[in-house]
Amino acid sequence: MSSQLYRNPPFRAEHLGSLLRTDELLKTKTAYEKGQVPHSDLVAVEKKDIKDIVETQKKLGYAAASDGEYCRHMFWGSFFPGLDGFEEVANVDPESFRPYAPDVAAFLEAGHKPGESVICTGKIKHVGSTYVDQFKYLASLVPPEEVKNLKITLAAPNWYHLRYKEGKAYPKDVYSSDEEYFGDIAKAYQAELQILYDAGCRNVQWDDPNLAYFCDQKMLAGWKADPLNKYSADDLFDKYIQLYNNCVAARPADMHVGIHLCRGNFVGSRHFSEGSYDRIATKLFKELNVNTYYLEYDTPRAGGFAPLKDLPTNKNVILGVVTSKFPQLEDKEEMKRRVYEAAKFIAEGNNISVEQALNQVGVSPQCGFASHREGNAIDYNGMIAKLKLVREIANDIWPGQM
Fold first, then answer.
1. Model confidence pLDDT, tens digit, residues 205-215
2. Which CATH architecture fits 23-397?
3. Whose CA, among 172, 223, 256, 332, lies 20 to 30 Å from 178?
4. What pLDDT digit, counting tens, does each position of 359-376 carry?
5. At residue 148, what are phi and psi to the nearest 5 degrees?
């Protein structure tokens, strides 16, 4: 990737893509799923609400506007079900899942089996984008010169791999190895990125809680104790880094690519994992070919800023110091202090000044407000207050910058 720092995007004030839905949209989605209203009614409400939320983002000063993920049920959207070779399954055998994968473990601890999932049943092939029409509608709502700023979020390429036990992610008579399976996933994402690029998209963000799971000691202990696993957790992390690098290998040079790591963001503001970035930082920052890292930093479960010493000077970090999970507002001055603290570690790691390090930094909420369409334990006004706070922090630290 380029040795130059990619700017605008990302911007000094960012959010992570998902925004709270209106009651009307939630009710219409439920009615559509029950067969009570036609699809055209749902689409009409989605488009009206997307138009409104884009206008809201512009008024709040967010250049990298998203559609709020309003057309999605969960943050990962429809990429995998839209591929040949994958099928949505309502009742997956619980024995197919790794019980120590943090999101799976959370369901099992609550006495629930994991919900609907997507499984590989045949050779994987990209047969058309399920995201591009959503992006085109989003692009129609802003002036042509602003289209390049718009952000679309993508499902992690490893999402339907880590959660399944060894030997359960794909049929052995279809793929002989992870490398072969990952190869077709990468080809599918190369095709997706090109289609989005051709539609004018220049700003994508992968959402990947899985990578943060490699910081969680419970998950790591479960992995080590599982006799089915062929290789270590660190070996799998390396494979995922290579998978991402293959996904972006053919991307155009002027397409900004970011990745968001968090520790889970489910209904009612539930998180799934804990652990600092320390044990993955060097590989994450130095070997993963992305421009920007959107990192969760709102609570001690994410650890401290010391791992940012490994952030190279040609990459950005957006610091998620403001929580999206709960309505209580953070103290603005304390958040500014934390941003400067993070910049000191970047400066130390690269032997540059804090002012130079700040050029690689932005701020955001730590995660989306509605990774699941029902949303977090915060109401609409609370969300707006959080977004205003993020914008104010950015204005104070980087006056006059988007």
1. 999 999 999 99
2. Alpha-Beta Barrel (3.20)
3. 256
4. 999 999 999 999 788 878
5. -65, -20
Encoding tokens for residue 100? 């120590």
Cis omega (within 30 of 0) on the bond before 9? yes
Find the mean pLDDT for residues 268-295.
Answer: 88
Calculate the average pLDDT of the chain: 93
- Residue in this structure with the two tokens 């540059």, named with its chain if needed: 352
Reading phi first (left if > 0) and then psi (alpha if -120 to 50, else beta), residue 398 is in beta
d(CA 55, CA 351): 41
Q: Are 238 and 229 in contact (CB under 8 A)?
A: no
Phi, psi of 292 (to 5 degrees): -145, 140
Report d(CA 67, CA 226) in Å as an integer: 40
Contact assessment for residue 132 and residue 199, using Cβ atoms and an 8 Å cutoff: yes
* SS percent in the chain: helix, strand, coil, step 5: 40, 15, 45
Helices 39-60 & 380-397, crossing angle to 10 degrees? Answer: 30
What is the spatial distance between Cα 152 and Cα 170, in angstroms, rounded to a whole number? 28
Q: Kindly list the distances between the CA atom of residue 198 and the CA atoms of 59, 76, 186, 255, in Å, as whole numbers in the listed order.
A: 28, 22, 18, 11
- What is the helix (H) or strand (E) element at residue 206, kind and residue range? strand 203-207
Kind and range of the H or E run holding 256: strand 256-261
